[in-house]
Amino acid sequence: KWNGYDCLLCCRTDTLGVGVLAAWLLQAAPIRKGLTSARALLCPTAAVLFLGFAFLVYSGYHLGTPTLFVLGHTYLAVLYLAIVLIAGFASQGLVGAILRMAVLRELGRISYGLYLYHQMVRDLFFGVLFGTTAWLSGWEAWLATLEAFLLTVLLAELSWHYLEKPLIAWSKTTG
């Protein structure tokens, strides 16, 4: 089964690499200047990338098929990068304003904890409440998913304040 491998860091270094490359490139003033002058192209680029992925999924491909298993996460990483660039460089428009909403910025701040805890909390909720794996059929499952999400946000917030933030501060004092 493909699914087990696509969560391993060694199998997803492409996605991590897109983020690292973007962070590195954005440190260069010419790149930032170019993105600022080309900001009108960011929303159409994200729209084309989204429609392309939607077309692939509609055509029967999904992240479990070999083609998208190999290339799909990289494709999505580029799409997500375009969305992040919209928030940073196309801030005058409606899409930029939505992406800079306080709730989304807060979720971004605790996103590492959300990533770490979400499957564990969701699976724990469904295992304890229903004795099954996660599914979204019926109001009970939706309510359990919402509760699992809220607990995940709480855990991620605690992780940020008591683990991640102190470690980041400590790393700045030792460097």
Task: Explain how this protein is built.
The protein has 175 residues and is an all-alpha fold. Helices cover 76% and strands 0% of the residues. The protein contains 8 helices and no strands. It has helices at residues 13-25, 29-37, 42-58, 66-89, 94-99, 102-109, 111-130, 139-174. Helix 1 runs parallel beside helix 4 (66-89) and helix 3 (42-58) runs antiparallel to helix 4 (66-89). The chain is globular and about 55 Å long. The model has no long low-confidence stretch (mean pLDDT 86).
In short:
The protein is an all-alpha fold.
Main attributes?
76% helix; mainly alpha; 175 residues
How are the secondary structure elements laid out?
Elements: H1 13-25, H2 29-37, H3 42-58, H4 66-89, H5 94-99, H6 102-109, H7 111-130, H8 139-174
Helix pairs in contact: 1-4, 3-4, 7-8
